[in-house]
Amino acid sequence: MSRNDDATPARPEWPLYEVFVRGKRGLNHVHVGSLHAPDATMALHNARNLYTRRNEGVSIWVVLAEDVTASSPDEKDPYFEPSGDKVYRHPTFYPIPEDVPHI
């Protein structure tokens, strides 16, 4: 029996998830890769199996790639330039009292 590709219904593409893992010694989550999964629960399980095989993670985030909004590296100069002239946003602008141990 031959297979007729035209008669076979197209399988829907699983959505793409971006995976972020927080390591045992890390304070933040780091993007480690991407994967396709039918839903967020399966994406979380697959991310655990794929990206934390050596027990190096303490927390995993999976985010639908279509929900991530990011600036373009090509636009970094005009995008971040406006903050350069706002010195008051830097802690060096304010005097630090001597009784404050650290900031």
UniProtKB/TrEMBL annotation:
E.C. code: 1.14.13.149
Annotated Gene3D superfamilies: Phenylacetic acid degradation B
Keywords: Oxidoreductase
GO MF term (any one): phenylacetyl-CoA 1,2-epoxidase activity
Highest taxon of the lineage: Bacteria
Gene name tied to this protein: paaB
Name the record gives this protein: 1,2-phenylacetyl-CoA epoxidase subunit B
Enzyme class: oxidoreductase
InterPro entries (alphabetical): PaaB (IPR009359), PaaB_sf (IPR038693)
